[in-house]
């Protein structure tokens, strides 16, 4: 594939991060996760992080004006010349419109939007068992993707952590916010003719195969 501009959409826990990490090598473009960028800002105690934290802690969306500058800067990076795989952005109609404007200005439109469909029960179960490596970012699940040594990253041995917003009441709020503010983008991108609805259940390898088939990539 030459240039590839793809968005992964889906509810919290749908597997966007898991799939993006495994797809970057096949697609040859960087993975850009708005959630990861915001968490880095929070950890780094930057002005953006300090403002974003209060929204993230309760499962609400960080205001568009904060997120847009961050994404515009990131997709302007030289590593994004061949494209990108966006995970968690856009999440509102205003973000989708702004992304369209950014890409028009850069001369290459969005090519594919993959909407991962996973039911609410499965999403809650996935988030309740998620663990992640604070050092290398690798994702695990206590049942579905357990590390070889309990609580330790297989790659770098660092102690795994539970994300702050994976508490039950915050997850409920994140799912509600997704349904109200982000799910309408599915219809928006269907109208644009670039939507692929992909079943996000089954093994990560099966889901990956379905995504690659949808976007015309090589395994
Ligand atoms: P963000 O980090 O984007 O979180 P999210 O969209 O809620 O998605 P998650 O990261 O929770 O889930 P995922 O779909 O990536 O699933 P994963 O692969 O980890 O956003 C966090 C917060 O930041 C937001 O609430 C908001 O406040 C803010 N924010 C971010 N972007 C924003 C924006 N654009 N605008 C405004 N605010 C923004 O998988 C989950 C678990 O399931 C893992 O344990 C994994 O091992 C397991 N798993 C994955 N696939 C499978 C499978 N096929 N079978 C079984 N288990 C699986």
Structure explained in plain terms:
With 219 residues, the chain is of the alpha/beta class. The protein has one domain (4-215): Rossmann fold, CATH 3.40.50. Helix content is 47%, strand content 14%. The strands form 2 sheets. The chain has a 5-stranded parallel β-sheet. Strands 5-6 form a two-stranded antiparallel sheet. Helix 2 crosses helix 3. The radius of gyration is 17 Å and the shape is globular. It starts with a strand and ends with a helix. The mean pLDDT is 94. Bound molecules: BIS(adenosine)-5'-pentaphosphate. BIS(adenosine)-5'-pentaphosphate (AP5) binds at residues 10, 12-18, 34-35, 38, 55-56, 59-62, 67, 88-89, 91, 95, 126, 129-130, 139-141, 144-145, 165, 174, 203-204, 207.
**What's the CATH superfamily, by name?**
P-loop containing nucleotide triphosphate hydrolases
> What's the number of extended β-strand segments?
7
Q: Report how far apart the termini are.
A: 12 Å
Overall geometric form:
globular
CATH topology: Rossmann fold
The structural domain count equals 1
Low-confidence stretches: none
- The percent range for helix content is 40-55%
Reading the helices and strands in chain order gives EHEHHHEHEHEEHHEH
What ligands can be seen in this structure?
Answer: BIS(adenosine)-5'-pentaphosphate
Report the biggest beta sheet as strand number plus sense, adding barrel if it closes. Answer: 5 strands, parallel
* Main β-sheet, spatial strand arrangement: 2-3-1-4-7
Which class best fits the helix and strand makeup? alpha/beta
CATH architecture grouping: 3-Layer(aba) Sandwich
Q: How big is the Rg?
A: 17 Å
